[in-house]
Amino acid sequence: SLPDDLGGLKVLVTAGGTREPLDPVRYISNRSSGKMGYALAAAAIQRGAVVTLVSAPTSLDPPAGVELVSVETARQMYEAVMERFSTQDVVIKAAAVADYRPKIVAGQKIKKTGETLILELEINPDILYELGQRKEPHQTLVGFAAETEDLEANALQKLRKKNLDLLVANDVTQPGAGFGTDTNIVKLFYRDGRVQSLPVMDKKTLAHRILDAVVELRSQTHS
Ligand code: C5P
């Protein structure tokens, strides 16, 4: 049986890929399935946490017992997370948030006109960066990084820049890792400099492994 080691803790998980509208019928998005975030939410429920799942659109059923907050865009996700952050003990940002959104959202469907169409994009808020700035000592912040090159250097830079306790980094070019798959291959980067390379595993198993790391971190800093 599973430990009740998150009993009484409030855990917020974000999941899915945000959708950034272009016009009433089109959007820009990414290949995130939401599986990792949903697996984390389910695992946290099993271990006794009170779980809020802030989800961009996915084709998954929310795990029983979570409070589901459905959003579409990065800005909606930003609002939903910021509103709730101060009451959370653990925040795990598994969502694939669009870095940019179309600068203009057309009121009507964009017509086919010339041979080319130029879209102007503007930057979205970095939710995780903002959380890192606001984080209180009792809060544990976990980020994800999907990389296609220089995994280690990029991961360490994100861990520091975003003021995270733990960064889960995967090389999405490896078979069996990243978007859409049921398995993942990750490295865990800890704030204290430790790095753990995990073997390929099911996202459900990995979810529990990540929560083990969270529990361990919290026992060090809060005992
Ligand atoms: O910088 P990068 O997008 O690779 O960082 C990934 C981490 O930051 C993920 O945990 C993701 O959910 C989070 N993120 C965010 N807001 C953004 C972009 C990324 O919270 N606008």
TrEMBL record:
GO MF, any single term: phosphopantothenoylcysteine decarboxylase activity
Cofactor(s) recorded in Swiss-Prot or TrEMBL: FMN; Mg(2+)
Enzyme Commission number(s) of this protein: 4.1.1.36, 6.3.2.5
Location of the DNA/pantothenate metabolism flavoprotein C-terminal domain: 7-216
Reaction catalyzed: N-[(R)-4-phosphopantothenoyl]-L-cysteine + H(+) = (R)-4'-phosphopantetheine + CO2; (R)-4'-phosphopantothenate + L-cysteine + CTP = N-[(R)-4-phosphopantothenoyl]-L-cysteine + CMP + diphosphate + H(+)
Region feature Phosphopantothenate--cysteine ligase, mapped onto this chain: 11-223
Domain of life per record: Bacteria
Pathway assignment: Cofactor biosynthesis; coenzyme A biosynthesis; CoA from (R)-pantothenate: step 3/5; Cofactor biosynthesis; coenzyme A biosynthesis; CoA from (R)-pantothenate: step 2/5
Binding site for CTP: D99, K109, P125, D126, I127, L128, F144, K158, K162
Cofactor note: Binds 1 FMN per subunit.
Keywords on record: Decarboxylase, Flavoprotein, FMN, Ligase, Lyase, Magnesium, Metal-binding, Multifunctional enzyme
Family to which the UniProt record says this protein belongs: In the C-terminal section; belongs to the PPC synthetase family.
Function: Catalyzes two sequential steps in the biosynthesis of coenzyme A. In the first step cysteine is conjugated to 4'-phosphopantothenate to form 4-phosphopantothenoylcysteine. In the second step the latter compound is decarboxylated to form 4'-phosphopantotheine.
Protein name in UniProt: Coenzyme A biosynthesis bifunctional protein CoaBC
Source organism of this protein record: Desulfofundulus luciae
